[in-house]
Amino acid sequence: MAEPNYNPDPGGARVLQSGHGGTSHAAQEEQRRDNRCITIKILVPKWIFCSGIVWSVVIGVIVAVTAVLLMMTAPPPPNPEDWFLEVEDRSGKEGVAVFKAFDRNRDGFLSIIEFEPLLKYLQNVTGLTSTAPGEEFLEHKFVDGEEIFIVNAHFEPLQLETMTKEDILNLNFLKAFRLYLRFIKHSFLPLITLGPHTALFGLKNWQEPYRNQSIFGTEEMKAFLPYNDNIMLGMPYPVVQDKPPGIFEETRMHSNNRFYPQAPKGSEQVLYRLLGMMHPRPFVHMRFPPRGTYACVRAFNADYYHIIFRMHAEFQLNEPPTDPFWFTPAQFVGDLVISKNGSHVEYFHMHVPASRRLNVDMEWIVGSFENSNMEVDIGFMPRMEWSVGLTSSKPALRSGDHSSQETSARQVTRPEDILWSSSISVNDALSSLEKAFFPFKQALKKDESNPEISEFASMLLKEYSFPVMMTVIAPNGTIVHKTNANTFLDMEVSFLESGFTNPSTYQYEQFLKEGLHNLERGARPSA
């Protein structure tokens, strides 16, 4: 038997061959497998491809010719500018200017969404003028013998970096980067891409008070006086009560889609003037409860009351055609020392508390008008304050509706420097006012007849730190899970998580499940 020999193949490998020159067993097996394979070839005539291209060209030409003929025979689209010229001839330029201001997308038509703020505008003015409605309500008509005093406004704008609701240092990298992009979007991109028509334009340009000083009269400050002399210390009474939303009285919510406030009446006027020193579009009545202004007498003596008040109000920062932007401080707190007959003001001060990390709620419209949603955020405003340096005094000079204060007016006397016949603490007065706005805070905590329920109420009040909160409570009263409305609305849910379920419904279900999970393992809610 001949010895096998090795011959190199073209790739450098060696193929084992037998001495007889025949193929190996492995090669024979591979050839048999190849013989069993079946190859199918499909031949397509070339004329089919040529015909398809020809027919495509023919159909395209027919469509193009038809479109050209329709365009040639159709009447030209209406030009809104031609309509504006016709209206100007009949009604003047002022009417056209008002229409253009509320025609946000500049298509020459007013949708129902665009018409709603126009309706509010028309309700507040008697004629069509170029000045913004409400400006005339920032003035006061003084009466003979009325003392006057000067109020100073102090304002430091919102810190934009606080609009992100979470501490970026406590987040993982991906979420921190997402918040960074959100900050860039809110802070820089709107001004670069949209200029004056971005939703945040009014916020970014509000850098100082609308009026640094205004003269007030003692007659308008009588709105803060109690209704009778027998009122108890710390008993709240309304300065401005909650008010139904105009023509939509069946709802508790005022519309978000409006620009100008309603004309103030009665005791609303002094509050409107105070707020109007900061911004020209103050809303004494907020869009949602708890609205209004409450006051209480903290102290009194033979001549004076020391009155503390709390107000819930807001500002709308944008002008049409930019969508509304709502700026809602957590609360306005003020106090004044006024004579019992209202003829003299010894002291006045009002401010937005800045002791907490966040003190302003903001809402604005995002998306198209027909499919719009409200974006919600919160932030920190360092200072919004009204102060008085001199007591009220008789005017030395009067010119029309304007007066100048006598130079002999003396420095104000602070409430703590006055000897009172009877008084309660400032904290007790503020607590009483808080309960006037939030009645659920007043009943159960001090209910000695049912100590178990009273204890539950105390636990809830201890955890309550935001106007709208959701809690999951164990049978023994322990709060095992909680969140506030802004955090809930800001949760991001992907489609893979929620599927076809409404995102808010999915988030609420997850909130409840997490609460039950915490209850099973006896956990306390995170701060």
Automatic annotation (TrEMBL):
Question: Which segments cross the bilayer?
Answer: 47-72
Its GO biological process annotations read: calcium ion homeostasis
| UniProt GO molecular function | calcium ion binding
Q: Is this entry keyworded Signal?
A: no
* Keywords attached to this entry: Membrane, Transmembrane, Transmembrane helix
Specify whether Nucleus is a keyword of the entry: no
Region: Disordered; residue ranges are 1-30
GO cellular component annotations, sorted alphabetically?
endoplasmic reticulum membrane
Domain EF-hand, by residue range, is 90-125
Q: What is this protein called?
A: EF-hand domain-containing protein
Cross-referenced InterPro entries: EF_Hand_1_Ca_BS, EF_hand_dom
